[in-house]
């Protein structure tokens, strides 16, 4: 780490038509969530900027789709190498603007590089089909890139989210207009810079910031955009789906979750507590697959609550740049306010505070690691995604009861179960309505595995071959 990490923070800019644009009529102040200090002023796009980005994306798609896949793969592989070489600088920037620990931002930078490498290879295997037809005739099914993509990435994984929005479309032969969250612009700039330095043509990637609703309305109204990819809250996802309907654009929606955690009485208690405490602390719980609603079987309920409250409750919070810190601040003051409301509501409804439960004095958006026990089903925390360092615990008796609770909500992103019993693990894997299930683990993201949800958690997947196919359309050619 340099003696002055803030010195690594770049001048903020959009990237449109091959130029970094640092000046605009309107700007957004970017703040370090650990200290409240201003990091920079972010230029915001106007309608002219967005039109310029659309024109580039249209041009870029025409040339990029015709570019050999080997060249597209080379760009992604060189960008992955650059991300790895720049990991310390990028991780510092991401921690400054998002707050999570350096250990976490290093991991997500490496995960972004791994994703680029995966898609560089996967794009070469975009095989079609030859259908059985009478001699001398053919029917072919081919995959083609869908077209220019408008992609909206949130702030919670400032490096990996933009990487997810760029890797698969670029591999597939699409151009992309990326609008990352205005809270974490410099991390996205670093990902785009790696692609440019790797030789990605200027028209293929545009990076814009703005007033989110203005940008999405403008881009989604344009017939140039053929696909919308969004990660964020279910409410915003529904709004974008409605906008996309007018021009019938394809959509990938990675929306809110509310992950149930089923802790069976046969689990390895010590390992379960450790895994869940680390998983819950990750990015201070601001993760769409964060373990959230804990259902613990009667026989071990009290022991689990005591052990988890002691382990998670003692997570060291602080500035993410400090090597001793285990959990950073929340990304913005909105989240601190939300935690206050959620905890007050649970308390009012009879929940017991088994650890934490409050903010922290001084600058920065800190919230204590909070454990709520005996939480009634009606409490807000059991129904609305907390998106913060709050674990809500309730008890259950039978497997069926646990499944009923887990499937009760309209969300279905991630779910977790902890058990040493293979039959129980299988039954849970089959019965839970979720896009991803972790048995004895909270790690769900991998470059080669689809990441996405069911029900109101969204549709379509990122990562894995499925993420590439989501950037392609099929064409059937019958030839007699
Ligand atoms: P929010 O709903 O205001 O914004 C969520 C994200 O959507 C942000 O990145 C924002 O820039 C973007 N956004 C908002 N309105 C938009 C629009 N009209 N068009 C395009 N993009 C738009 O919430 P927030 O306060 O930033 O975050 C809190 C909530 O968002 C959480 O409760 C959580 O459910 C959700 N969230 C989910 C994820 C995820 O990984 N699924 C990530 C971040 C936030």
UniProtKB/TrEMBL annotation:
Q: Which UniProt keywords apply?
A: Oxidoreductase
Which Gene3D superfamilies did the record assign?
Aldehyde Dehydrogenase, Chain A, domain 1, Aldehyde Dehydrogenase, Chain A, domain 2
Task: Give every Aldehyde dehydrogenase domain span.
Answer: 20-477
- What InterPro entries does the record point to? Ald_DH/histidinol_DH, Ald_DH_C, Ald_DH_N, Aldehyde_DH_dom, Aldehyde_DH_Superfamily
Source domain of life is Bacteria
- UniProt key word Lipid metabolism: no
Quote the CDD domains the UniProt record gives.
Answer: ALDH_F5_SSADH_GabD (cd07103)
Report if keyword rRNA-binding is assigned. Answer: no
The record's family statement is: Belongs to the aldehyde dehydrogenase family.
* PANTHER family in the cross-refs: SUCCINATE-SEMIALDEHYDE DEHYDROGENASE, MITOCHONDRIAL
* Protein's UniProt name: NAD-dependent succinate-semialdehyde dehydrogenase
Which species is the source of this protein? Answer: Novosphingobium cyanobacteriorum
């Amino acid at each position: 780490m340099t003696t002055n990490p803030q010195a690594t923070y770049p001048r903020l800019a959009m990237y449109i038509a091959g130029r970094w644009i640092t000046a605009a009529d309107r700007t957004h102040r970017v703040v370090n969530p650990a200290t409240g200090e201003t990091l920079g002023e972010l230029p915001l796009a106007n309608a002219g900027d967005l039109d310029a980005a659309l024109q580039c994306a249209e041009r870029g798609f025409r040339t990029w789709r015709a570019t050999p896949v080997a060249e597209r793969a080379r760009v992604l592989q060189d960008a992955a190498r650059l991300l790895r070489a720049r990991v310390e600088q990028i991780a510092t920037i991401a921690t400054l603007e998002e707050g999570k620990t350096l250990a976490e931002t290093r991991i997500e930078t490496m995960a972004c590089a791994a994703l680029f490498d995966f898609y560089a290879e996967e794009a070469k295997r975009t095989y079609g089909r030859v259908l059985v037809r009478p001699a001398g005739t053919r029917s072919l099914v081919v995959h083609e890139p869908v077209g220019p993509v408008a992609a909206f990435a949130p702030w919670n994984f400032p490096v990996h989210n933009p990487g997810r929005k760029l890797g698969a479309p670029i591999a597939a032969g699409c151009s992309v207009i990326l609008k990352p969250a205005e809270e974490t612009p410099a991390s996205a700039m670093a990902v785009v810079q790696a692609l440019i330095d790797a030789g990605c043509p200027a028209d293929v990637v545009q990076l814009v910031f703005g007033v989110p609703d203005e940008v999405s309305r403008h881009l989604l109204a344009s017939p140039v955009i053929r696909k919308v990819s969004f990660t964020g809250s279910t409410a915003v996802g529904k709004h974008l789906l409605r906008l996309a309907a007018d021009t019938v654009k394809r959509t990938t929606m990675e929306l809110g979750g509310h992950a149930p955690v089923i802790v069976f009485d046969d689990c390895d208690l010590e390992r379960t507590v450790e895994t869940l405490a680390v998983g819950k602390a990750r990015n201070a719980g601001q993760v769409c697959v964060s373990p959230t609603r804990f259902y613990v079987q009667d026989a071990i309920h009290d022991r689990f609550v005591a052990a988890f409250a002691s382990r998670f409750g003692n997570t060291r919070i602080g500035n993410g740049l400090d090597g001793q810190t285990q959990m950073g601040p929340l990304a913005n003051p909105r989240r601190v306010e939300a935690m206050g409301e959620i905890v007050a509501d649970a308390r009012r409804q009879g929940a017991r505070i088994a650890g934490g439960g409050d903010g922290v004095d001084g600058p920065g958006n800190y919230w204590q690691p909070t454990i709520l026990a005996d939480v009634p089903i009606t409490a807000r925390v059991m129904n609305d995604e907390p998106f913060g360092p709050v674990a809500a615990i309730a008890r259950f008796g039978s497997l069926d009861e646990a499944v009923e609770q887990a499937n009760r909500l309209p969300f279905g992103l991630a779910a977790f179960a902890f058990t040493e019993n293979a039959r129980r693990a299988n039954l849970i894997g089959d019965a839970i309505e979720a896009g991803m299930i972790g048995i004895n683990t909270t790690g769900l993201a991998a470059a080669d595995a689809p990441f996405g949800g069911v029900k109101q958690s969204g549709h379509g997947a990122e990562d894995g071959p499925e993420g590439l196919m989501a950037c392609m359309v099929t064409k059937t050619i019958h030839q007699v």
